[in-house]
Amino acid sequence: MKKEIHIFFTALMFFTRIPCPKWVNHDPQYLRKSSKYFPLVGILVGSIGASFFYGFSYIFSIEIALLLSMFATIYTTGAFHEDGFADVCDGFGGGWTKEKILFIMKDSRLGTYGTVGILLILAIKFLALREVEVFYIPIVIIAGHSLSRFIATTLIFTHPYVRDTDDSKAKPAAKSMSISMLLMSGFFGIVPLFLFLNPFIFLTLIPMYLSKMFLAAKFKKWIGGQTGDCAGAVQQLSEVIFYLSIIALWKYIW
Predict the structure, then answer these.
(1) CA 80 to centroid of chain Cα atoms
(2) How many CA atoms lie within 13 A of 12 on its CB side?
(3) What is the dihedral of CA 43, 183, 191, 13, to 10 degrees?
(4) Which of 2, 4, 48, 59 has the fewest CB within 10 Å, making it most exposed?
(5) Do the beta carbons of residue 211 and residue 62 sit within 8 Å?
(6) pTM of the entire structure?
(7) Which domain holds residue 149?
(8) How far apart are CA 175 and CA 149, in angstroms?
(9) What are the C-alpha distances in Å from 30 to residues 35, 76, 202?
(10) How far is CA 209 from CA 104, 176, 196, 246, in A?
(11) What total of structural domains would you count in the chain?
(12) Can you spell out the DSSP letters for the chain?
């Protein structure tokens, strides 16, 4: 149990700015096993966003409350996944060889593709959440963060890590994943869906996984696998797809 707690706090320290005990560090041994707790970290991050929305919705308009909620989650994670999404946009938008794509994604500077990509995905995220019934928004935020992180872990499970260098901090977390770790990740990712009390909500898994397959096919074609940035891009895209799927379900099925 103590070891599992250490692994969880390792994931929390790596993927968020939430304070952790001093005895927790970025030990590759624990970081390699921490991916199974990514969705649980997502539940915490989503809960922070949901709390901000719920609290500020009593003071400000729904739009302002949503923006403050998005700010809270981005601040909590240090824009970790958003940065990965932007890097993928720059890399695959401006690179035409594996070496060039990986080089661009490693560059800390933000390019045109990344700027346009991150602005569009944040705008879609905001507008999609605004379309959700206000009562359900906190639950949708929590589920979106947990489930999208589970989808991201499936990329780690199905595609090999491709960077040859050892200087990437994300390498241990993105390098490999066992079936048992994937199952645990899936458990934490799917649990928030039961809060909706409607079995149709599980249909959102289909378009979310299809979005992962779409990106994974591009990753496989151009670089032969995935990197930490690729997993971040999958998380961001599948989160938005979840919100859009919720809207479609309410309009045509729910």
Answers:
(1) 9
(2) 17
(3) -10
(4) 2
(5) no
(6) 0.93
(7) 2-252
(8) 16
(9) 10, 21, 31
(10) 26, 19, 20, 15
(11) 1
(12) -HHHHHHHHHHHHHH------TT----HHHHTTGGGGHHHHHHHHHHHHHHHHHHHTTTS-HHHHHHHHHHHHHHHHTTHHHHHHHHHHHHHHH-SSHHHHHHHHH--S--HHHHHHHHHHHHHHHHHHHHS-GGGHHHHHHHHHHHHHHHHHHHHHHS-B----S--TTHHHHH---HHHHHHHHHHHHGGGGGG--GGGGGGHHHHHHHHHHHHHHHHHHHSSB-HHHHHHHHHHHHHHHHHHHHHHHHHT-
Q: Can you give the C-alpha Rg of the chain in angstroms?
A: 17
| Run of H or E including 155 | helix 137-158
DSSP code per residue over 113-126: HHHHHHHHHHHHHH
> How many whole angstroms separate alpha carbon 89 and alpha carbon 112?
9
What's the rounded Cα separation, in Å, for the pair 96 and 186? 34
How far apart CA 66 and CA 107 sit, in angstroms, is 31
Helix axes 205-223, 228-252, angle to 10 degrees: 150
In this structure, the chain runs to a length of 254
Are the beta carbons of 202 and 246 closer than 8 angstroms?
A: no
Q: For residue 177, how far is the Cα from the chain centroid?
A: 17
Q: Return the pLDDT at 163.
A: 73
| Nearest residue to 44 (alpha-carbon basis) of 192, 174, 232 | 192
Tokens 């289909």 correspond to what residue? Answer: 206
Residue from 18, 21, 63 nearest 40 by CA? 18
- Averages of pLDDT over runs of 10 residues in the chain (254 residues) are 85 91 79 91 98 97 98 97 97 94 93 96 98 96 98 95 64 69 96 95 97 97 95 98 96 83
